[in-house]
Amino acid sequence: MSIILGIESSCDETSAAICADGDILSNLIANQLVHQNYGGVVPELASRAHQQNIIPVVREALSVAKVHKNEVSAVAFTRGPGLLGSLLVGTAFAKAFALAGGIPLIEVNHMQAHILAHFIDDPKPVFPFLCLTVSGGHTQIVLVKDYFDMEIVGETTDDAAGEAFDKTAKLLNLPYPGGPLIDRYAKQGDPMAFRFPEPQIPGLNFSFSGLKTSILYFIRDHQQKDPDFIAQHLADICASVQHRIVTILLNKLKKAAKQYNVRDVAIAGGVSANSGLRNALTAMADQEGWNVFIPKFEYCTDNAAMIAIAGYHKFLKQEFVGQDVAPLARMIL
Ligand code: KG4
Ligand code: ZN
């Protein structure tokens, strides 16, 4: 029997989870609401909030799972990529927990973990599969050959898809993080109401900065004529922007699936919670004959269950790290 404690602290959620022989028994997340007042994550405030949250969150994760701390076999933590001050809190906690319990320490790459969240529940994808990983910091098409053998075959050359959502929300005077709000308003809007351009980027790469600029000018021009433009057309603007972001993502994913002759296709990361993306992907899968894998909502945005499951697969291979391990703000897949 293996019991893995997973710790996630790369950005603004403090999370702890317990995984017993590959089954997630608990997954606790403390959100940091403090950043809403600043329109984005403030790194210094994030690391202080992690310090406050980490012990109560771990205690609760153990308690919900009905696991005593002495029963934990290994502790897995997010080493990177992320905000260094935030990563340091989780790393230091994990090291101390491992040292105190005399148990092994397992480092996890946050972006690999988003993908490995697909190995929490059934049905599970079959290697090799493609995963579109879309978060606040990343937009990648990944060819997943094995649990820890992944190749980026396409990525953004500028903004991430999550940033495109969040920056659009900011232009619409919506609070941070705006992605989920755009999703909510889009449900009442017409995705064809306004047309935003699709960038012509060669190969499997993405670009979202041109879209952001065209939205900026679109809003500015309409507001000059009608100061109430945003308020009156909010749902249609959200639906149209979301439609464009989703088509940019899925057109490249379709191209990648053809190029690599892959039929198992997954999405991961915070933006995979977007209902427009989930619906459009399901429709595309029907058309293309793909087996599609869409994570449960709680495993889309940052969570420790994905860290614990990644840790479990490293535990099976006895892949441990020493107490000299340091977090990495940048970490390749
Ligand atoms: O993976 P994640 O929780 O954190 C990072 O590692 O970045 O992703 C956060 C991103 C944010 O940009 C947020 O606005 C976006 O995911 N997001 C969404 C939705 N839920 C979260 N974007 C669009 N629609 C959603 N429903
Ligand atoms: Zn993430």
Automatic annotation (TrEMBL):
The keyword Repressor does not apply. It catalyses: L-threonylcarbamoyladenylate + adenosine(37) in tRNA = N(6)-L-threonylcarbamoyladenosine(37) in tRNA + AMP + H(+). GO terms for molecular function: iron ion binding; tRNA N(6)-L-threonylcarbamoyladenine synthase activity. GO terms for cellular component: cytoplasm. Residues 24-308 form the Gcp-like domain. Its cofactor is Fe(2+). Gene3D superfamilies: 3.30.420.40. It is found in: Cytoplasm. Fe cation binds at H110, H114, D302. Pfam families: TsaD. It comes from the Bacteria. It is an enzyme of class 2 (transferase). Keywords: Acyltransferase, Cytoplasm, Iron, Metal-binding, Transferase, tRNA processing. The keyword Flavoprotein does not apply. Its EC number is 2.3.1.234. SUPFAM superfamilies: Actin-like ATPase domain. Binds 1 Fe(2+) ion per subunit. GO terms for biological process: tRNA threonylcarbamoyladenosine modification. Transmembrane segments: none annotated. Substrate binds at T133, V134, S135, G136, G137, D166, G179, D183, N274. InterPro entries: ATPase_NBD, Gcp-like_dom, KAE1/TsaD, TsaD. Required for the formation of a threonylcarbamoyl group on adenosine at position 37 (t(6)A37) in tRNAs that read codons beginning with adenine. Is involved in the transfer of the threonylcarbamoyl moiety of threonylcarbamoyl-AMP (TC-AMP) to the N6 group of A37, together with TsaE and TsaB. TsaD likely plays a direct catalytic role in this reaction. NCBIfam families: gcp_kae1, T6A_TsaD_YgjD. Belongs to the KAE1 / TsaD family. This is tRNA N6-adenosine threonylcarbamoyltransferase. It comes from Hufsiella ginkgonis.
